[in-house]
TrEMBL record:
Domain Fumarate lyase N-terminal residue range list: 12-306
Family: In the N-terminal section; belongs to the lyase 1 family. Argininosuccinate lyase subfamily.
Organism name: Cardiobacterium hominis (strain ATCC 15826 / DSM 8339 / NCTC 10426 / 6573)
Domain named Argininosuccinate lyase C-terminal: residues: 369-437
HAMAP family associated with the record: Arg_succ_lyase
Keywords per UniProt: Amino-acid biosynthesis, Arginine biosynthesis, Cytoplasm, Lyase
Biological process annotations from GO: L-arginine biosynthetic process via ornithine
One GO term describing the cellular component: cytosol
Major location (coarse): cytoplasm
The protein's name in its UniProt record: Argininosuccinate lyase
Gene from which this protein is expressed: argH
Enzyme category, top tier: lyase
Entry-linked SUPFAM superfamilies: L-aspartase-like
Amino acid sequence: MHKAKTNSAWGGRFQESTDAFVAAFTASVGFDQRLAQEDIAGSRAHAAMLVKQGVLSEADGEAIARGLDAIADEIARGEFVWDTALEDVHMNIEKRLTDRIGDAGKRLHTGRSRNDQVATDIRLYTRAAIERILGEIRRLQAAIVALAEREAETIMPGFTHLQVAQPVTFGHHLMAWYEMLVRDAGRFRDCRERLNQSPLGAAALAGTTYPIDRHMTAAALGFAAPCANSLDAVSDRDFAIECCAAAATLMMHLSRIAEELIIWNSAAYRFIDLPDRFCTGSSIMPQKKNPDVPELVRGKTGRVYGHLVALLTLMKSQPLAYNKDNQEDKEPLFDTVNTVLACLRAFADMIPAIEANREAMYRAAGAGYSTATDLADYLVRRGVAFRDAHEIVGRAVHLAIERHTTLDTLPLTDLRTLSPAIGEDVYESLTLEGSINARDHFGGTAPVQVKARIQQAKEKLQN
Ligand code: ARG
C-alpha cells in the first residue's frame, strides 16, 4: 500500500490516506473557525509561557507572536483560506503559521494537545458570549423599565387562568418581566464564574513532561486559576451545558413575554399596538398586521431547548477523558448564543416602541367583577369572617350578572340586603383605582410601590 499522507499532523503512523468522505465527516473547520481569535489568544499565551520557562527560544517566541498577529489580521480581513483537509481551526492556523515562519511554527505545539487547546478556546468563547448576552439582557431590562415608568399608573386586568382576576397596573406587569430577567442574568453570571478556569497545560489528558507554568497561561487569558485536574480539564463541558440551560430558561421567559404581546396585540384585546416596523402583513388578507417578531421569538425557544438536550445527551456516559464526541459541542452552543442574542435584541428594540391602549386596558380591567376580592376584604375589615365574606360577595356577583351590571353600580340598598356590614364607603373599594392603590405593600401593584421598584431598577441598570 502506498503512503499518501493527507494529514501531516499524524501521517507518520498511517499507511493510507484518510477516506475522502471520512475526512469531510470528521472535519470541524466549517464551524469551529468561529473560534479562531480565541485559538490565537491561547497560542500566544502558551508560546509566551514556553519562552519564559526556557522550553522555546526567545527568537522562536517572537516569530510565533508575529506570525499569529499576521494570521489574526488575515482572518479578520476574511482573507484566510480554510482547508477542510486540515480538519479543524487549530490545525489550519498551525499549518499557516508554519508556512509563514518555518520551523518555529512546528514548535508551538510543544507541551500542548488539541484537547486542552479546544477546551480553552470554547471556554474563552463562552465567557465572551456571556458578556454579550449580559449586555443585551441589560438593554432589554432598560427598555422594559422605561415602558413600565411610562405606564406605572395604567390600569389593566391581571389574569389567572387567563380569566380577569384582579386589576393591576401595566407597569407592575412589565416589572414582573424585569424580575425574570434579573434571575436570567444571575444564572449567566454564575455560569461565567464557574467556567473561568484554564484547561491549558492539561495537554492530551495527563499533563505534560515540560516544565510548564499553568498559572501564567491562566492569568494571561484572564482565567481565575488553572483547572485542578488534567483529565477533568480536557473532558469537562459543564460550562456549555450550564450556558445553554441559562439560555433555555431565558428563552422560556422570552416566549412567555412573546405570548402576552401576541395576545394583547390581537383584535380581541387591543391592549397594545406593536410598531409597524416590527410586523408584517398578509399576502392575502389586506387587513392583517401580524406580530411576527414575538411569534418568531416564541418559535425559536424550541431550538434552544433542543440544543440543551443535545449537549446533555452528548456528554451522557462519556468515559474520561477527551472523546471525539466533544466536537459536537460547538454547533449547539454557537446557535444557542446567536439565537439568544438575536431574540434579546429584537425585544430590546421593539418594546420601547409599544403603544399602550389605556382605554381598552381600563375597560377590560372593569369587566369580570375584578374587584370582588376587594369587596370581600372590605367585609373582613367590617368584622365578617373571610369565608362568610366570600359567600356574600359571590351572591353580589350573581346579582350583578343577573342585572347585566357591575359591582360598583349595584345600589347600596341591594348590597345591604346581602350584608348589613356594608356601608356607603364600600364604593371606594369597588373602583379599579381603589383596588390597586389598596395593594400598597412591598411587591404589590399600588403605583407607589411599582415606582419605587422602577427607581431601584434604574439605579441598578446605570451601574
Ligand atoms: N476538532 C476537535 C474538537 O472540536 C479538536 C480536538 C481534537 N482532538 C482529538 N484528539 N482528535 O473537539
